[in-house]
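A student in our group prepared the protein record below, which I am reviewing. Here is the record exactly as it was handed to me.
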Amino acid sequence: MDPTVQALRCFLAVGRTRHFARAAAELHLSPSSVSEQVAGLEKQVGAPLCDRTSRRVDLTAVGAAMLPHAEEVTAAHGRLVAWAAARREGRLGDLRIGFLAGGTSAVMTPVLEAAVNRLPEWRLHLRRLGFRDAVPLLQAGEVDVALAPGPVRPAEVGLRGVELLREPRVLVVPQRHRLAGRAGVRLAEVRDEVFICASPGTDEASRWWAVDPRPDGGPPVYGPQAQDVDEVLQLVAAGLGVNIAAASAARYASMPGVAFVPLEDVEDCAIWLLVRAGDRSPGVAAFERIARTSAAALRARGGSVGG
């Protein structure tokens, strides 16, 4: 018969306390039970593990040699028990997180840091999203949660959403642009600028970002299309147009040759956490709670966005 984990625990307790009664008290067992467990181990090993006297117990050479093996086995058993419990209770697995780099970083960074600390048993897989990826990838089941900026109507597309944070918007211009360095700018001042966008006003989100129609009723001048923040910045730096972005892009997505100027007369941008409407899985639920808590803490600090 192989040594049991219970017998190894008794042996380790005796080795720590050098006393059968104290070991029994530590394990909430009777001294006779501890003694029987150790005696059983000695029979299986074929040699004494302890030198017993009336006052104390010392490990024999064989007992000292067995000690690290017993520690390794009981530690591994503890990890197995914890893993099994986490699996049974839905506290571990894989969680696929979609995010728009540079467009949601004001929230993504603290949320991800908190998730790493609070979900140690979960494997977190990050997927970088383009401007128009969040909804279709969630609907297709390719990501479990997504952080996305801008106007969203989750219920209309089979999703559940939480608005985590609101932040101002900025005009993204080339560093040499006439408005670079200004403390603020109004839409009327960029009426004739070419706007870089995800699509030329063909969907509600693109029109919202470009503020189409403008306050005077006319559309903006649409120019090159970009799939993500990096492409926007490359096109702006090259002087091919301007863009409107969330203010936190100035901190998390800046690059040489690009300037960010606060827009004074446009509504703020919301950053959303999106999940499938019927998804109540443990990982998604835990990430939702973490995102809400992290965003609340960020708002309490004044929503540190925008540089």
Summary: The chain has a mean pLDDT of 90. The chain has three domains: 5-88, 93-166+270-300, 169-267. DSSP finds ten helices and twelve strands in the chain. The longest strand covers residues 159-167.
